[in-house]
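Course exercise 7: structure representation. Students receive a sequence record and must write out the corresponding structure in token form. The form below is the worked example handed out in class, using PilZ domain-containing protein (190 residues). Read each field label carefully; the graders check that inputs and outputs are placed in the correct fields and that the protein name is recorded exactly as given.

STUDENT ID: A-19
EXERCISE PROTEIN: PilZ domain-containing protein
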Amino acid sequence: MNSDSNAYFSVLHPFDAYLSRWPTENPLPTEEQLHGMKSTGMQLISEVKALEGSYMLQLRHLGDDARAIADYMKLQSRKIDLVLQHLLEQEAKDGLRCTGLQFGGSNFRVASPEPFQLGEQVKVTLFIREEVLSVLCFATVVDCHPDAQQPNHFVVELAYSVINDAEVEHLVKASLNVQQKQLQLRKANR
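STUDENT ANSWER:
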């Protein structure tokens, strides 16, 4: 759980988000209970990402000799990610579908067809396609105002209230990867 909503960098990038209002009479789940709420596809992606990160770190310590192996492992990992992403896209989605605007390791922002109340707890599933990342968490609404770009929509900012540490790490890495791609694209378009 993160109490500082500005602790991590965030990046403007579109993604899919599904928000379900959490009943005020229900306590928020623990991180362990949250893990049990994940679909099979989400659990598989989490495990693959954890294994991938661990082995890639070990390969980096081997130096230049492991570069070809690391490149091959990245290719294999990408293929597995694509299969898992397809599996996730076939699963039923719970909640109100919103368009993600910005995300990071502390909070995220979406465009929603419905308003939310400040302080409201929401069960959230985030899908960041380009990073093959799917995150189940709970978040607190910290801001909600009419969307100046889309009539009858609202910009909702949410801060994570229950999220696994590994998922925060994945979100941080994803935001940095997206930023790097955006900077490379800007540089190429100069």
